[in-house]
Amino acid sequence: MTEHKPENISSIPIDGFSHLRITSIWTFLMSVQWSEPWLVGLLVFHAVCLFMTVLTCRFYRVTPLITHIVLLSLCQILCLHLFFCRFFSDFQYFDSKGMFISLVYSIPLLLNAVIIVMVWVYRTFSTMTELKTLQLKRKARREKREKND
User: Fold this and answer.
1) Which spans are transmembrane here (predicted)?
2) CA distances from 33 to 4, 15, 73, 103, 108 (A)
């Protein structure tokens, strides 16, 4: 039989703020000090982006424009933050594997993109349904006219 080797606990990172062992995404998120002003600003930014996405879903030409502006501006802000984070952040959040940036920055924007794509697919199907309905009505009127002539 194979013996179960105990996991090397010393290889699991310990958070400097809450002193938790980071073993999952949830403990990673719990280890972030969410009271830092720039993190509060980032959360407010994501809330505003979600609000703008939901608000502009009806206007299919405005949504991509707002999405591009948001992504470009946030990329610039994020690049500046990477260079100057030691001046206004208490902890070094940006790890080499990108866990922090993926969870806190990319996933909320990805959810906004998923919402936009779902709305676009719904609108496309609705437009195609309306088009087919109009085609069938036109065909029925044409056949009715030919039948009467």
Assistant:
1) 38-57, 69-89, 101-122
2) 36, 10, 24, 14, 18
